[in-house]
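User: When convenient, might I ask for sequence and structure tokens for a protein?

AI:
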Amino acid sequence: MSRIVVGLSGGVDSAVTAWLLQREGHEVVGVFMKNWEADDDDPNCPARQDFLDVLAVGDALGIEVELVNFSREYQDRVFAYFLAEYQAGRTPNPDVLCNSEIKFKAFLEHALDLKADFLATGHYARLAGEPGHRLLLKAMDANKDQSYFLHRLSQAQIARAMFPLGGLSKPEVRDLARRAGLPVAEKKDSTGICFIGERPFREFLQRYLPTRPGPMATPEGRVVGEHQGLTFYTLGQRQGLGIGGVKGAREGEPWFVAGKDREGNRLIVVQGHDHPLLLADTLVAADLSWLGPPPLAGGRYGAKTRYRQCDAACAVEHIGDGELRLRFDEAQWAVTPGQSVVLYAGEVCLGGGVIQ
């Protein structure tokens, strides 16, 4: 029997994680992480209700529950990076950094202080192999697989990690929650990052970053509208441009963000989902992180440039000097600087880097 700290979020996934481990005979301790101080009463970030749900789960399971505040660590290690990346014109993925810097660093250290043998979460992923040589595998449910968000974990981190839901589908998890009588069995899944929640994204960023309006223009230089600041847009974006009625060369086709001219403060927009400027057959990534030996130059792998994307067949053209260059068999849509590219060898997640 092991002593296992379970990160309880107030949702059904982490509640079932705790229930499964308890059924196996482990000593389970529930911990709720508070990562954001502002907007406690904002309905877009219902941390108070989530904690009440965690307490209800603790009562149902008869386990100890603790609240631990990592807001300062989150501000320093995740949110500051998030803002800096947006200011630099890139689109960061804070969930990836939150896993490596908060959940499996600050939180893992806290779990070890509580004399835990392992830290378990409700992520959909699997682990295999021995300590020091562990493999991070995709979840059995491809639609819920979250290995993409876990690719920056180290061997030391996954040696202490447990992902009990990796072999289950979401409907199976819901059924188990009902069978166990868990009070969150029917609770809807949360969407978005807590500090943003479901509020308008641009409105949130404007609280922290300056606005600098400028022209929206086609690649040929025709001005078709005005943007509110390059920071607030991302490659491939279609909604919120405000130029849907503007006619262009491809009449009736929607407009998409295709690039940012930071020197001229111009947002480049094009018409048509399949416009050549939205497609890329190569990418360069830096800030690399590998769970084991790095991939080999000339080797062939599958890659995801965004969550829930099917693996795209690719070859490693170059790896070294802290950079990785990939070439895809088929051009990929809206490859976005700041997002993560994650490499796979079949079911095994190798790691990845940040798209440049």
Notes: The chain has eight helices and 17 strands. The chain has a mean pLDDT of 93. Residues 294 and 350 are 7 Å apart (CA to CA).
